[in-house]
Amino acid sequence: MALRQVLYGSSAVRPMTQAEIDVILEQARRRNIETGITGILFYLDGNFLQLLEGEEPALSETFDRIRLDTRHRNLIKMLDGPIDQRSFAASPMAFRSIYGNELEENPDLFVQSNGRWSLSEGAGVDEQLKILIETFLMVNYTRSHDRL
């Protein structure tokens, strides 16, 4: 069957604790294992960026459930289309919560150049997805540090 990928961003209705995020991850991982969905979720300064990958109808059902979740708002779908292979095939829901210096503490995934954070070459994502994730990092990391 054909694979599809969806990338969206949204904002938490209020800042979330690590315990609340852990509940979301546990639920997502359990459902994703059952339905064959893979992906990654980023959380930075009250904002989410999530990539979902899978086959139909499981991917559409998963996205519809997420869209209706009341723990977030302002959901914006940024990418939706076919893919040849999964970027996160080994994970029913990888997760990166990015607090303060966590970008610095994950050199396997993030690198900084000229004061700007980006994904490392070893991150294994295509160029279009890389640009979207880096934009998320730039906007939210800058916003969180402007308040310091």
Quick summary of this structure?
This protein is an alpha+beta fold and 148 residues long. It is 35% helix and 34% strand.
Q: Note the run of SSEs as H and E.
A: EHEEHEEHEEH
Low-confidence stretches: none
Overall form: globular
Taking Cα atoms only, what radius of gyration do you get, to the nearest Å? 15 Å
What is the count of distinct domains? 1
What is the CATH class name? Answer: Alpha Beta
Give the count of helical stretches.
4
Distance between the termini: 48 Å
Q: Please outline the major beta sheet.
A: 5 strands, mixed
Mean pLDDT: 81
CATH architecture, by name, is 2-Layer Sandwich
Strand order, sheet with most strands: 4-1-3-2-5
What percent of residues are in strands?
25-35%
Q: Count all strands and give the number.
A: 7
CATH topology term: Alpha-Beta Plaits
Given the helix and strand composition, which structural class is it?
Answer: alpha+beta
Helix content: 25-40%
